Amino acid sequence: MYGQRLPVEDYLLQPDQVSRIQAARRALVVRCMRSKGIDFGFPAAAGPHSSNAGKTQSEMRYVTPPEVAAKFGYHSPDGQGQAPESPGLPKATEEALFGKDGKSGCYAEVDEDFDRRALLVQDAESVVAINIDNMARSMEDPRMKAAFALWSGCMKARGYAYGTPMEASADPRWIQRPTATPEEIATAVAHTSCMTETNIVGTWFAVESAYEQRDIEAKAAELAAYKTVIENTLRFADSVLAQP
Amino acid sequence: MRALTFRSALAAASATAALGALLVAAPPAQAAGPSFCDEATGDTCLYYNSGRTGGFYGASQNVVNYTSDMKFGIGNGKGLPVKNNAASVYNFHRIWNVTIYYNSNKSCAYACQSFAPKTGGNLNSQMKNNNASQGYWLPA
Prior knowledge:
The complex is a heterodimer of chains A (244) and B (140). Chain A is built from 11 helices and no strands. With 244 residues, chain A is mostly helical. The radius of gyration of chain A is 22 Å and the shape is globular. Chain B is mainly β. Chain B: Keywords: Signal.
């Protein structure tokens, strides 16, 4: 749903928070290296911003905007893309970063410090579970099965035989070429039209929200404490970044 | 069997006992692949088992669909394709986040799970054995 957040999103790290936490981790690694007499710097954090960045969970998972479907079909608007290689490091630098065993060194020291302070470096598994498990649970819900049947009927009327939106997305024909074929685009356009016509997205958002809410209520104490951990982590990250 | 360097020791935690002698071997020309996860190229290391154990595979690029020739190396799961068979992940990239997608084509439709630079973890129970593609990104 555009502009709407699922209940779990109150507990997921937002992109700007991820940026701050990772910037602090890097700054601490640089400081640790300096304390070992090694001048080390990270390359500038330049790179691809995912087309998913800034989207809510529900925007990413249910909705392909019609204009994106019309241009890219089921392909990612980001294209294939390439991850750049990190420049090679002198052996002494590498050992100071990762230790001789690959499990110690400055990275390990910084992350152990986060651990000791009971801070996060990324979303906790239990929160990821609320986010993803309830997506899966919603797919099995009778209300969603009815919604999928409506969607499937809408697609059938347009000449496409898919039981669910997931089936259509996973059609093996869509991975055979680096860009969308006209057939793929036509299918994706029909797919998104049928999502709108059957209001499947509204149903899905309501069903999944209810499942998440149930989990959140069951884990209220744990999640309240977790909120504090997020706040503490951000406060710590900001204090690290404020230091020269 | 491919040589392992100390860079991949983290990835090879479960294999180090048996392969300790190989850990000091010179790095092979290939920077990623079966049983090779490289810090220098910022690979995403995919493991057959939870807790970053079992056979592993290093993929250093965005992958819109893990192909059938991308297979786990030594250990549990050896020879099996990484697509829809990974249980845990480590992101060796120093700067970029990596997202593992339930779908091909790097689509977060239905589900996806991200790992910060230099972190790893188990794939969520729904993502486990449902990994179809991966992509690196920076937060907005």
